[in-house]
Protein backbone atom coordinates (compact mmCIF):
# COMPACT_ATOMS: atom_id res chain seq x y z
CA UNK A 1 0.00 0.00 0.00
CA UNK A 2 1.38 3.36 -1.04
CA UNK A 3 1.56 6.19 1.42
CA UNK A 4 -0.93 8.98 0.83
CA UNK A 5 0.56 12.02 -0.81
CA UNK A 6 -1.62 15.05 -1.43
CA UNK A 7 -0.34 16.89 -4.51
CA UNK A 8 -1.91 20.20 -3.43
CA UNK A 9 -0.13 20.26 -0.04
CA UNK A 10 1.96 23.36 -0.95
CA UNK A 11 -1.22 25.16 -1.99
CA UNK A 12 -2.86 24.18 1.30
CA UNK A 13 0.10 25.51 3.27
CA UNK A 14 0.09 28.82 1.39
CA UNK A 15 -3.63 29.23 1.84
CA UNK A 16 -3.36 28.44 5.53
CA UNK A 17 -0.69 31.14 5.89
CA UNK A 18 -2.88 33.62 4.03
CA UNK A 19 -5.79 32.72 6.27
CA UNK A 20 -3.66 33.24 9.39
CA UNK A 21 -2.52 36.65 8.16
CA UNK A 22 -6.08 37.61 7.23
CA UNK A 23 -7.28 36.50 10.67
CA UNK A 24 -4.60 38.61 12.34
CA UNK A 25 -5.50 41.61 10.18
CA UNK A 26 -9.17 41.12 11.02
CA UNK A 27 -8.38 40.90 14.73
CA UNK A 28 -6.31 44.09 14.49
CA UNK A 29 -9.10 45.91 12.67
CA UNK A 30 -11.65 44.75 15.27
CA UNK A 31 -9.32 46.05 17.97
CA UNK A 32 -8.98 49.40 16.16
CA UNK A 33 -12.76 49.60 15.77
CA UNK A 34 -13.33 48.92 19.47
CA UNK A 35 -10.75 51.56 20.40
CA UNK A 36 -12.44 54.08 18.08
CA UNK A 37 -15.82 53.28 19.65
CA UNK A 38 -14.39 53.71 23.16
CA UNK A 39 -12.76 57.00 22.16
CA UNK A 40 -16.06 58.22 20.70
CA UNK A 41 -17.90 57.21 23.88
CA UNK A 42 -15.36 59.18 25.93
CA UNK A 43 -15.83 62.23 23.69
CA UNK A 44 -19.59 61.89 23.94
CA UNK A 45 -19.36 61.68 27.72
CA UNK A 46 -17.08 64.73 27.78
CA UNK A 47 -19.60 66.69 25.71
CA UNK A 48 -22.45 65.69 27.99
CA UNK A 49 -20.43 66.67 31.06
CA UNK A 50 -19.67 70.06 29.52
CA UNK A 51 -23.35 70.54 28.64
CA UNK A 52 -24.28 69.77 32.25
CA UNK A 53 -21.72 72.22 33.60
CA UNK A 54 -22.90 74.91 31.18
CA UNK A 55 -26.56 74.32 32.01
CA UNK A 56 -26.03 74.24 35.78
CA UNK A 57 -23.82 77.32 35.62
CA UNK A 58 -26.58 79.34 33.97
CA UNK A 59 -28.91 78.75 36.91
CA UNK A 60 -26.63 80.44 39.41
CA UNK A 61 -24.98 83.40 37.76
CA UNK A 62 -24.33 84.51 34.24
CA UNK A 63 -20.81 85.63 33.43
CA UNK A 64 -20.26 86.48 29.78
CA UNK A 65 -16.52 85.69 29.86
CA UNK A 66 -17.22 82.24 31.26
CA UNK A 67 -19.93 81.62 28.67
CA UNK A 68 -17.58 82.55 25.83
CA UNK A 69 -14.91 80.14 27.08
CA UNK A 70 -17.50 77.41 27.67
CA UNK A 71 -18.89 77.84 24.16
CA UNK A 72 -15.39 77.71 22.68
CA UNK A 73 -14.68 74.52 24.60
CA UNK A 74 -18.09 73.12 23.61
CA UNK A 75 -17.45 73.79 19.92
CA UNK A 76 -14.07 72.06 20.20
CA UNK A 77 -15.58 69.04 21.95
CA UNK A 78 -18.31 68.83 19.27
CA UNK A 79 -15.69 69.03 16.52
CA UNK A 80 -13.68 66.29 18.27
CA UNK A 81 -16.83 64.19 18.52
CA UNK A 82 -17.50 64.58 14.78
CA UNK A 83 -13.90 63.56 14.08
CA UNK A 84 -14.37 60.58 16.39
CA UNK A 85 -17.55 59.56 14.55
CA UNK A 86 -15.68 59.69 11.24
CA UNK A 87 -12.90 57.57 12.75
CA UNK A 88 -15.48 55.01 13.89
CA UNK A 89 -17.03 54.91 10.42
CA UNK A 90 -13.60 54.41 8.81
CA UNK A 91 -12.64 51.76 11.36
CA UNK A 92 -15.92 49.92 10.75
CA UNK A 93 -15.33 50.02 6.98
CA UNK A 94 -11.78 48.68 7.41
CA UNK A 95 -13.07 46.00 9.76
CA UNK A 96 -15.70 44.89 7.24
CA UNK A 97 -13.13 44.84 4.46
CA UNK A 98 -10.70 42.75 6.49
CA UNK A 99 -13.58 40.51 7.55
CA UNK A 100 -14.42 39.86 3.89
CA UNK A 101 -10.76 39.12 3.12
CA UNK A 102 -10.64 36.70 6.05
CA UNK A 103 -13.82 34.94 4.93
CA UNK A 104 -12.42 34.58 1.40
CA UNK A 105 -9.17 33.15 2.76
CA UNK A 106 -11.12 30.80 5.01
CA UNK A 107 -13.23 29.58 2.09
CA UNK A 108 -10.08 28.98 0.04
CA UNK A 109 -8.65 26.86 2.85
CA UNK A 110 -11.90 24.93 3.15
CA UNK A 111 -11.85 24.17 -0.59
CA UNK A 112 -8.38 22.63 -0.33
CA UNK A 113 -9.37 20.74 2.84
CA UNK A 114 -12.39 19.33 1.03
CA UNK A 115 -10.21 18.29 -1.92
CA UNK A 116 -7.75 16.64 0.46
CA UNK A 117 -10.59 14.82 2.24
CA UNK A 118 -11.88 13.52 -1.08
CA UNK A 119 -8.37 12.50 -2.16
CA UNK A 120 -7.80 10.70 1.17
CA UNK A 121 -11.12 8.91 0.81
CA UNK A 122 -10.28 7.84 -2.74
CA UNK A 123 -6.81 6.69 -1.59
CA UNK A 124 -8.30 4.75 1.31
CA UNK A 125 -10.85 3.12 -1.00
CA UNK A 126 -8.13 2.21 -3.50
CA UNK A 127 -5.95 0.78 -0.71
CA UNK A 128 -8.86 -1.28 0.59
CA UNK A 129 -9.54 -2.59 -2.92
CA UNK A 130 -5.88 -3.56 -3.36
CA UNK A 131 -5.87 -5.27 0.02
CA UNK A 132 -9.05 -7.16 -0.90
CA UNK A 133 -7.54 -8.22 -4.22
CA UNK A 134 -4.46 -9.54 -2.39
CA UNK A 135 -6.66 -11.47 0.02
CA UNK A 136 -8.72 -12.86 -2.85
CA UNK A 137 -5.54 -13.88 -4.64
CA UNK A 138 -4.18 -15.61 -1.53
CA UNK A 139 -7.49 -17.40 -1.01
CA UNK A 140 -7.47 -18.50 -4.67
CA UNK A 141 -3.91 -19.80 -4.34
CA UNK A 142 -4.82 -21.77 -1.20
CA UNK A 143 -7.85 -23.31 -2.90
CA UNK A 144 -5.77 -24.17 -5.98
CA UNK A 145 -3.08 -25.72 -3.74
CA UNK A 146 -5.68 -27.77 -1.84
CA UNK A 147 -7.27 -28.92 -5.09
CA UNK A 148 -3.85 -29.86 -6.46
CA UNK A 149 -3.02 -31.75 -3.26
CA UNK A 150 -6.39 -33.51 -3.36
CA UNK A 151 -5.93 -34.48 -7.02
CA UNK A 152 -2.39 -35.64 -6.35
CA UNK A 153 -3.45 -37.70 -3.30
CA UNK A 154 -6.15 -39.55 -5.07
What does this structure look like?
With 154 residues, this protein is an all-alpha fold. It has a domain at 9-110. 92% of the residues lie in helices and 0% in strands. The protein has 2 helices and no strands. The protein has helices at 9-60, 64-153. Helix 1 (9-60) runs antiparallel to helix 2 (64-153). It is rod-shaped. The two termini are 40 Å apart.
What is the structure about, briefly put?
The chain has helices at about 10-60, 65-154.
> In angstroms, what is the radius of gyration?
37 Å
Largest sheet: none
Helix/strand order, N-terminal first:
HH
Strand content: under 5%
What general form does the structure show?
rod-shaped
Proportion of helical residues: over 70%
Please report the total strand number as a whole number: 0
State the helix count.
Answer: 2
- Helix and strand composition category: mainly alpha
* End-to-end C-alpha gap: 40 Å
Low-confidence stretches: none
Overall average residue pLDDT: 90
Topology, element by element:
Layout: H1 9-60, H2 64-153
Helix pairs in contact: 1-2
List keywords for this structure.
single chain; 154 residues; rod-shaped
Amino acid sequence: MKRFRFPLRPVAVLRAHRQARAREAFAASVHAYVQAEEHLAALHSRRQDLETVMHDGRRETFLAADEVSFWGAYRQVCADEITGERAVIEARAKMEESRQLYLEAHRAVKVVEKLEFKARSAHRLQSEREAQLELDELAGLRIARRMAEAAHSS
